[in-house]
Design goal:
mainly alpha; globular; 4 helices
């Protein structure tokens, strides 16, 4: 049996995926499929929650900082990414409020 290697998403991948889920949520909302829209917004928020946090991997106590960085858990994000995450998070929460 082959070993499976887990791929941990980088912060850029998490933000990109969050944008995708938010856009899908918007499409579901336009179709008045509110249950699906809520799920998509929630998935986007889950992606955003882990951006910039090596501790979000739950591995910080077991793996060196160097290894964490090689896995995409740098803990350092740019000011632009912080603003992007803040904006996306606010948008998703606002969209969730409008879906109920």
């Amino acid at each position: 049996m082959a070993n499976k290697v887990l791929h941990h998403k980088t912060d850029d991948e998490k933000v990109t995926l969050a944008k995708k889920f938010k856009a899908e949520g918007n499409e579901c909302h336009k179709k008045q499929d509110f249950k699906q829209a809520i799920g998509k917004y929630h998935r986007a928020l889950l992606q955003l929650k882990g951006v910039g946090s090596s501790k979000s991997a739950g591995l910080g106590a077991f793996i060196s900082e160097e290894d964490m960085e090689s896995m995409g858990y740098s803990g350092k994000i740019t000011e632009e990414m912080k603003q992007d995450v803040t904006r996306l998070t606010a948008d998703c929460y606002n969209n969730l409020a409008g879906s109920y």
